[in-house]
């Protein structure tokens, strides 16, 4: 019997996943808003953690593993994601995810993935293969991403410069570079392109 823990902050999504997985006789499924505290987890650690890729953006709230902690003694991490989100796939990889399933795909793929990662094998949904190749081609530097993330919040150049301890001219240069690299018309278009790719 494979012990599966579904973690998601949206109750309806979490309940639907649990109901789906409980139809499989080889799985023992439970759910929570976030991972339990470390001591509790040691007593009843699941073999596989299943979560949506968006939950990895807020580890403090969901309690999901941080980088390098997605497998091992605390169980393997399996994420549900969508196509055309190479940046999100890269974040899941950096968080130590062992399995990647297209959330728009057939439920049987999720069942297969759970069995595979429970055995310690990597699983990548076929429909996500091209996105994985794209994930290695992130055109922006970490600093350019930081500047774009602050621009996405509507921060003016002066505020971005102050928060990053840089000059306004340097921020303009980072923005111009980011706009050029992603083929955008302006900084808000660069933000949109980066968000669509899952880089932000």
Automatic annotation (TrEMBL):
Domain of life: Bacteria
One Pfam family of this chain: GerE
GO MF terms, alphabetically ordered: DNA binding
Record flagged with keyword DNA-binding: yes
Residue ranges of every copy of the HTH luxR-type domain listed in the record: 133-198
Tagged with keyword DNA-binding: yes
Name under which the protein is recorded: Helix-turn-helix transcriptional regulator
């Amino acid at each position: 019997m494979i012990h599966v823990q579904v973690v998601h902050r949206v109750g309806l999504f979490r309940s639907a996943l649990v109901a789906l997985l409980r139809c499989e006789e080889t799985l023992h499924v439970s759910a929570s808003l976030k991972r339990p505290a470390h001591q509790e987890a040691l007593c009843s650690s699941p073999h596989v953690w299943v979560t949506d890729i968006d939950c990895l953006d807020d580890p403090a709230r969901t309690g999901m593993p941080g980088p390098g902690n997605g497998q091992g003694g605390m169980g393997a991490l399996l994420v549900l994601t969508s196509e055309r989100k190479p940046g999100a796939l890269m974040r899941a990889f950096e968080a130590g995810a062992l399995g990647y399933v297209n959330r728009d795909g057939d439920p049987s793929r999720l069942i297969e993935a759970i069995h595979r990662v429970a055995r310690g094998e990597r699983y990548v949904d076929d429909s996500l293969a091209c996105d994985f190749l794209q994930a290695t081609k992130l055109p922006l530097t970490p600093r350019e991403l930081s500047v774009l993330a602050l621009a996405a919040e509507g921060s003016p150049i002066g505020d971005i410069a102050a928060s990053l301890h840089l000059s306004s001219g340097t921020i303009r240069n980072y923005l111009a570079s980011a706009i050029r690299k992603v083929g955008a018309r302006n900084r808000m278009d660069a933000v949109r392109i980066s968000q669509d790719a899952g880089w932000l």
